[in-house]
Amino acid sequence: STVLTEFAVQTRFWQEYILTDLNKTNVQIREHLEAQQTAVSPLVLKMNTTVRRLKLPMTSAPLLSMADLPWPKLQELSLDGQYLDSSHAESLPVFLSSLSELTSLSVQVCRRGDVGRAPILGRRPASSVALRGLRSLSIACPDPEDAIFSVESKDIRRLSLRDCPRYYHYFLDWGLMSMPCGWVSPILTSEECLAVLKRMDMPRLDSLEIVYLAEKAGTDDELLAYVASAFPILRHLEIHRYRVDRDETVDYVCSQSL
């Protein structure tokens, strides 16, 4: 074992997209990413009794092996990078279900079309102790049916239901930084976003980020009204609102009284 209390693996920004744009085959990309896990896994698995803060690319996290170990001091977990495939995505709920002491969880993982929305805690009811002490939760492209939204949430101060990569990249041409074919960012609709927020009891929430797609003008009025009334101590609010019809004129004044 080690005595490390903090450990972070920093990968190149948009590494997965750069590899795609360099015409690497799927096999070559997978081999590159799995080599990272081979290098990182032995060290990560030896710090389970001491680490408090852990930041890993999804492809470097040996989640199934981690789920077999206790992590009594792990308080902050951050995962980014990408899912290799749908079976890879299914390994995350196995690990998260074994944790009870986390206060901060961030899952900003990108995905291809064959993965789509992937519930980070599964769709079955979670155990009563799973993630019971969360104070900060950030999820990219959340699944509305995710069991994570039914865990104890009264202590949550910061919530982010966002996109990764940012949804607007699909509409921009930035050369190498443009979105390669096959990557998806399945953001919530305004109705789904509202349903998620209503599932959670967050009286202490003071920071909220939501990213959603509005079918047409006015369809998100109920969502905005709910945010204004349900979180009275909110100090930070960030909204990324996208239109199905990009030519639609948006009225900035909500039709309902907030």
Shape: globular
Determine Rg (CA atoms, Å).
Answer: 19 Å
Broad structural category: alpha/beta
Percent in helix = 10-25%
- Span from first to last CA? 55 Å
Q: Which stretches are low in confidence, meaning pLDDT under 50 for 5 or more residues running?
A: none
Number of strands: 11
Sketch the major β-sheet: 9 strands, parallel
- Oligomeric composition of the shown chains: single chain
Strand content: 15-25%
Quick check: average pLDDT?
85
What's the order of the H and E elements?
A: EHHEHEHHEEEEEEHEHE
How many DSSP H or I helices?
Answer: 7
What does this structure look like?
The protein has 258 residues and is of the alpha/beta class. The chain contains 7 helices and 11 strands. It has helices spanning 15-21, 26-45, 63-67, 86-89, 91-96, 190-199, 221-230, and strands spanning 6-8, 53-57, 76-80, 104-107, 111-112, 136-140, 158-162, 183-184, 188-189, 207-214, 236-243. Strands 1, 2, 3, 4, 6, 7, 9, 10 and 11 form a 9-stranded parallel beta sheet that branches. Helix 7 links the parallel strand 10 (207-214) and strand 11 (236-243). Helix 6 (190-199) packs parallel to helix 7. The model has no long low-confidence stretch (mean pLDDT 85).
